[in-house]
Every structure is written in C-alpha cells, then in structure tokens.
Design a protein that fits this description.
Shape: globular
Oligomer: single chain
Radius of gyration: 27 Å
Strand order of the largest sheet: 7-3-8-13-12-14-15
Number of helices: 11
Order of helices and strands: HHHHHEEHHEEEEHEHEEEEEEHHEE
C-alpha cells in the first residue's frame, strides 16, 4: 500500500489504460449490452475520454449534450437523466463481471461520485507469496512465549474493533437534506415506522401464453391466479425509498399489497406504490378527493390512461392523459391522506403507468422538489404535514423517468 493510502487495486488501475479499449470492446460484444444502444454509446464515450484525455473528469453536462442528445440549456438540477443512465451502466457492468466477464483479468468500473471509467487488474487481489515446502523445526516455547498469543489476540480484537468503528464512520451516509428530513420526519410521526406497500396485481394466464389482468371483484380459483408480478417503476421506487428511509433511520417494512393485513395497516404509516386498481388495500382508505384515475379501456380516448381532475379550476384540463406507447411522458398523483387509525397517515404515489409511479417517488425523494412542495404547502420545520394531493408530469426517456414537474396542488382540509 502506498504512503497516500491507495489500495493495490487503485495503483494497478494507473497502468492499464492501454487495455481499456480492448476490454470495453469485449464488454460491448456481450449479450447484456446488445439491447441498449444508450448504454453502449455511454460506455464508448467514457472509454474514449479516459484514453484520449487522461485525468479529465467528465461532467454531467458533457454526457447530457454529447451522448444523450440533450439541448444546450440542460440543467442537471431539474433533469436527472445522466445520473439515471450512469446508475444503469454501473449495474450492467457489475452484471457482466458476475457472468460473462467473471474470468476477465481487467475490470472496467465507474467509481462512485464520478462519471469517468477506470480499469483495474483484478489479479492484484489474488497474488500471494508462495508457501515454503520446508517445515521449520519444532522449538519449545518459553513460559512468556506461550502466553504471547493471548496478548496478540487481545490486540487483534482491539484493532479489529477500531477498524470496524472507523469503517462505519467513514461509510456512514451524509445527513439527509433539511427538506427531506422535514417531509419524512413529519410523515412518520407517531412511531411504529413506515410500511411500503408495492403493487402486485393479479393476472390469469402465463408469460408464455399471455396474461390478463384480474380485477379484485373477479373470483377465480387460486391456481388460475398469477400474482408474482409488479411494475418496473414500483421496483425502482421501492429501492429509492428504502435507501432514503434508511438514511433517516426510520424503521421500514415492505409488503406486497396482496399480503397486507388489517393489523399492519392500522398500526403503521403507509406508503402505497401504484394506484388502487393494483393496490387493493388502498381502496379501504379515504378516497382521493381532488384526483382519480381513468382506466385505460374507458372513455374518453380509449386506450390511454389518465388522471381525472375532480376539482377542475379555470385553465385546467378535466383529464391529464399519458402519451401512450412508446411512453414519453406520464402523469401521477402524490397524495397524503388519513390512515385507518388516528395519527396514522398514508402517502399514495401512483402514476397512470409504472413510469409515473417511479417519477412520483423520485419527486418526494429529491431535495429541490420536496422544498418546492413544502414551500407551496406553507410547511415550516417541525410543523405537521397537511393532507394534500398533487398532480405531477413525468418525462420519460428510453423507458426511464428523467424529470418530474409539479402541475397542480390541492391542500385538503
């Protein structure tokens, strides 16, 4: 290890720049990267910068405008598309090295906190000095030597405890921004933690032969019902919520909607991911007052889902329709309503599609958007959150929600 504290792996990364292009070509030829042109272009761009401009730290703006086709007025404060795609690329690289690239000698990585690629010699971790074939002669230990192992063990335990404490301190996530603490602490008042309920709608049929959605009021034999699916947006939203609530040290439980019990629903503050159609227990809560959801097969504009504006004001639309496939935008509702018991609350994050649900979750987990919401609601630090319902528009790019904007806000009595 160097005097600067760099690991052997970091030192090795400095000597393998010439191998980066060849390793990237190998990765791009793998099946995992064949279906995503955006991630292929992103990895090629980062590799080119690393080889042609060593030491250059790639910025979000460069990726947005040179790779993702964003306009020159791109603003990373309101558009998270670069962070989303970098996260997807990191995940794809990790998947490659767990499968096709498990035996590759060179690993391509994007270190956390950067948008640049490095390559590392994986063998650096496995090199070890050869063991001698000779067996040293037996030497009788003196009384002091016989007890040295106890002192060594004691010091070893102490050093290990100190190392673990240091690692925990270093690895501890930074405190959540003030706006997020205000919003989520106020939501979680009353103790007993938060239960996140994600949709798992019922289907009949199979993935091979076709699936048909089964409404809650349709009675089918248990064997005919398939309830193993949930939306991609709900899965990503659950991941984001888990990380945020963990940083806030808020007790968290996760439940499939089909498995939520009445006792759990009464004793917890609830976060619902997905609308009442796919989150059956949500239908037992006080209904949304300002907004509702038009089902895809209903008129008007059959074939498109929409949020219904139940309290239409001047200049507002009665329906807010999604774009339809391929999706470029969606609408979602963020609603804070009363729970099943006094002092319990339920937060509804629901889009007309799974993309809208993910965008709604992103809105309540970002400092700038939560600050906007609290300001418009007139909430200050340590004040309770009022009941409210908000309509948001979610921009979708390449199947990924990239930007969520507030459209309408209703503060409820």
């Amino acid at each position: 290890m160097s005097a600067t504290g760099d690991s052997p792996l970091r030192e090795n990364s400095l000597s393998c720049d010439t191998e980066l292009s060849r390793q990237v070509d190998r990765i791009l030829q793998s099946p995992g990267f064949s279906g995503s042109e955006v991630l292929r272009n992103l990895l090629q761009f980062l590799a080119k910068v690393a080889t042609e401009e060593p030491g250059h730290h790639v910025k979000e703006y460069e990726i947005a405008t040179q790779v993702l086709g964003r306009a020159p007025d791109f603003d990373s404060r309101v558009d998270s598309t670069v962070r989303v795609h970098i996260g997807r690329l990191r995940a794809k690289l990790a998947e490659y090295y767990l499968t096709m690239g498990a035996s590759d000698a060179v690993q391509v990585k994007i270190p956390k906190g950067t948008y640049s690629v490095i390559c590392e010699h994986r063998a650096a971790w496995t090199e070890a000095a050869p063991l001698s074939a000779e067996t040293p002669p037996s030497i009788e230990a003196s009384p002091i030597q016989r007890h040295d192992w106890r002192w060594m063990l004691g010091w070893g335990v102490a050093l290990a405890a100190a190392a673990m404490a240091a690692f925990t301190w270093i690895d501890r996530p930074p405190p959540a921004p003030a706006a997020l603490r205000t919003f989520w602490t106020a939501f979680g008042r009353g103790g007993s933690g938060v239960t996140v309920v994600f949709s798992n709608p019922r289907f009949a049929g199979s993935a091979g032969q076709g699936l048909r959605y089964v409404p809650a009021d349709e009675d089918l034999p248990p064997r005919a019902v398939n309830d193993r699916y949930t939306g991609v947006g709900e899965a990503f939203a659950l991941h984001q919520l888990t990380r945020q609530l963990d940083e806030l040290r808020m007790p968290l439980r996760v439940k499939r909607s089909q498995l939520l019990t009445w006792d759990e629903a009464r004793s917890q503050n609830l976060v619902f991911l997905g609308g009442a159609e796919v989150n059956v227990p949500q239908g037992e809560l006080p209904h949304l007052q300002a907004f509702d959801f038009k089902m895809t097969d209903n008129e008007p504009r059959r074939g498109l889902g929409a949020v219904v504006n139940l309290q239409k004001g001047e200049g507002e639309e009665p329906f807010y329709f999604n774009s339809g496939a391929p999706y470029t935008f969606d609408y979602a509702v963020i609603g804070l309503v009363a729970g099943l018991e006094p002092h319990r609350r339920a937060l509804i994050l629901a889009g007309t599609t799974t993309f809208g649900t993910q965008g709604a979750a992103d809105y309540v987990l970002r400092e700038e958007t939560v600050s906007e919401l609290l300001t418009k609601l007139g909430v200050r630090k340590d004040e309770p959150l009022p009941f409210f319902e908000a309509l948001v528009r979610v921009k979708v790019s390449g199947g990924v929600p990239t930007q969520t904007n507030l459209v309408l806000l209703r503060r409820l009595k």
